[in-house]
Design a protein that fits this description.
Two copies of one chain form a homodimer.
Chain A lengths: L2 H20 L3 H17 L1 H17 L4 H7 L3 H16 L7 E6 L5 E8 L2 E6 L3 H13 L3 E5 L5 H17 L7 E3 L5 H8 L7 E5 L2 H10 L12 E5 L5 H13 L8 E7 L3 H14 L3 E4 L1 H6 L4 E2 L13 E7 L2 H11 L4 E5 L3 H10 L4 E6 L6 H4 L6 E3 L7 E3 L5 E12 L3
Parallel strand pairs in A: 3-4, 3-6, 4-5, 7-8, 7-12, 8-11, 9-10, 9-11, 12-13
Antiparallel strand pairs in A: 1-2, 2-16, 14-15
């Protein structure tokens, strides 16, 4: 395969497809999504057969169980994909929305209209269900998508893309609106990252290594999601029952994800009362605690934390615990160690709540709620295509709106500039 | 000078300054801007003396008159800078605005709050007035700025930065909020472009060469403004008096700027009537016309256009003219040759106006008004720091809002995820 030629051709086709997608009405887009959902259900066996080839090969290669699990299109995963398509169809269409309109002294009416970004390159690991989720969000927001999934999922991804392309053709839409790169070579990824004249945005999804690789080699803007080192600050005035419930949820409910709590900061005024009861709950759930000297003093069962534990994304049942003298010290610690992902304060103090919301420089900042709510669905945006931890274009969970931009539209009646 | 060390230190200081700027109230920021304006007036002679050194050197080096003109801080330019500071002080503060707030089924209140981007690197040519304009916009939007101007303006820029830093110190704010790189070496620019851990955004302003250089070497996101190849389509139903006035304004009022018209597309139905009268006006103003075969047929004085004339940014009293059979052909021509900057339709047809607004993929799309309105001030945004012709983060003129992003704020009362 002549990779540069193939990728260049795919990008050109995507560019053309994007032009057609940009002016589709919501009705057509929703019909296409619902038809894809129906076809996914009707052809489940066929898709699972393609997937089985990938899974068998990966198993033979000795991939661990968790990897095979993510790779497998089980009945449950298939049903979730179908459900996902239906949910995206039910979301409002961001394209064409005029977000604001105002009148100028010379009588011009000026507005900002949402439009698609154009062509999106999506680079991810071996999770074939993501293929359909990402394509649905791009389609609904009027963008063409070029997908490069993990090499172990190639057959699954190609089968899913073929099915989606069939539906596009059925509706006389360009099949290049959804394309899977038919190569597992790293060179194909690199070539995609060079198409800055044709591709508008790259979204990588996966581990830190993948994201750094993409960011390093891309000539196209990249929306990055590095890591989630989420903090909760339990203030002196916190309701301790609420704090126990929220901190437990943030650490234990699903420790392997980016919005789980990694460091708990506790005001010294309540630490003697709060830490023992909180630690008991954590220990019952198998959480390993690593504490600052004061924490270890208050609870000698806690292992001393090392410098490397602050700012560490454990992604596991491990928690760093630090006692701080006041809100300022908590803010200082967060400014130094957080990954700008998600932080929460638990407090009954009005001023501290407002200051925390205002001053913490993270994509989602919460008062009296679990960090686990940093999620497009949970915040009410609908399905998410990723979470951005850098500020340009989008900061936080990205859904349909974040896959658009705005242009200015101007209604005049002959105005000229003097 | 150890350039990498100096630039790194400046970026670190800017980062710290940004943290302090982010939580300033509007009152303080406006006082600082107004004090800068007052000091610019009071110390005009001193600043003009620093500027005179730059101008004399540039003159001795043989720079052309237009260059020296842009470099000179004349009384008029000084007055405009003072006025600019006062106008930015009068603009609303974007920081802290909650642009939307909604309630979730579980009772969480979720909002999006505007926050500064952080640290902005601004790279531009030898126009020292831009130093103050850009610093004012960054300060008002809570961002720290690192400025790298053209080498011929170094003394002027350093003097202006010193004055602004004096005011910052007077208000006990970090002077590193506004820094001018004290080196003219290209290496200093390159080093700035490598500070992706500390600098959030690069805005280059100047000719295409400068912008391409920056885009090519930056590891930081860049908001690009390549060129303005602006089109006006005069539809069959256009009011010919209005069309004459708007097209004349768009080409002649200031031909050297990015929002001037470069190609006029004329519906064949009105070309025989419109072209002769329009061309007469253009010729009286000294505009050179280059036409398609049909244009030359209708007006034999027009010189035939070559392929290079379509999509050319003349920045001069030169205009390409093409007769097209219909709106579709006009849209096709624009999709092929435009630079996504500004396009207008002149029409009395409702459907054609709406289709043009919807389908043209440019940052500003107008009906019955001059392309010259693509400007932050003219569209009502206030002063602009540039015009983005790529879609990510901002598309079109960029003012205070475009120097911010939003974070999610969440008010809860103990919600956990289940």
């Amino acid at each position: 395969m002549d990779i540069p030629k193939v990728i260049r051709e795919m990008a050109l086709q995507a560019r053309q497809a994007a032009r057609a997608l940009g002016s589709l009405s919501r009705g057509v887009k929703d019909q296409v999504l619902l038809r894809m959902a129906a076809l996914l259900e009707a052809r489940r066996a066929e898709l699972q057969a393609a997937n089985a080839r990938d899974v068998e090969k990966a198993r033979a290669e000795g991939h661990p169980a968790a990897f095979l699990d993510r790779l497998t299109l089980s009945d449950k995963v298939m049903a979730a994909m179908v459900q996902g398509l239906r949910e995206v169809a039910a979301l409002p269409d961001p394209v064409g929305e005029v977000v604001k309109m105002w009148r100028r002294p010379n009588g011009l009416w000026v507005g900002r209209m949402r439009i698609p970004l154009g062509v999106i390159g999506f680079i991810y690991e071996s999770r074939p269900n993501v293929t359909v989720d990402a394509a649905a969000l791009c389609l609904k927001s009027g963008n063409a998508i070029i997908l490069k999934g993990g090499k172990e999922a190639l057959h699954s991804n190609l089968a899913l893309a073929r099915l989606m392309q069939e539906v596009l053709e059925e509706y006389r839409l360009p099949p290049a609106a959804v394309q899977v790169i038919p190569s597992v070579a790293r060179e194909a990824t690199l070539e995609l990252l060079r198409q800055d004249e044709l591709v508008d945005l790259i979204i990588p999804r996966g581990g830190e290594g993948l994201i750094r690789f993409v960011a390093e080699h891309s000539r196209i803007p990249v929306l990055k999601h590095y890591k989630g080192v989420c903090h909760i600050f339990v203030d002196a005035s916190a309701d301790l029952d609420l704090a126990e419930s929220v901190c437990f949820n943030a650490k234990v409910q699903r420790p392997g994800v980016c919005n789980a709590m990694e460091t708990m900061l506790v005001h010294e005024g309540i630490a003697p009362e709060f830490l023992p009861r909180m630690h008991r709950r954590f220990r019952e759930a198998g959480v390993e605690l690593r504490g600052c000297p004061r924490t270890c003093e208050l609870d000698p069962q806690v292992k001393p934390a090392t410098e490397a534990d602050w700012g560490c994304e454990f992604l596991d049942l491990i928690l760093a615990v630090k006692v701080v003298p006041d809100l300022d010290a908590a803010l200082e610690h967060i400014a130094r160690y957080s990954s700008n992902h998600t932080e929460a304060i638990l407090t009954r103090d009005y001023d501290n709540a407002q200051r925390f919301l205002r001053e913490v420089d993270s994509s989602v900042v919460l008062v009296n709620a679990s960090t686990r709510f940093n999620d497009g669905g949970e915040l009410g945006l609908g399905a998410e295509i990723g979470i951005s931890t850098s500020k340009l274009h989008a900061f936080g969970p990205m859904s349909l709106e974040e896959l658009t931009t705005t242009k200015f539209i101007v209604y005049g009646h002959g105005q000229v500039r003097t």
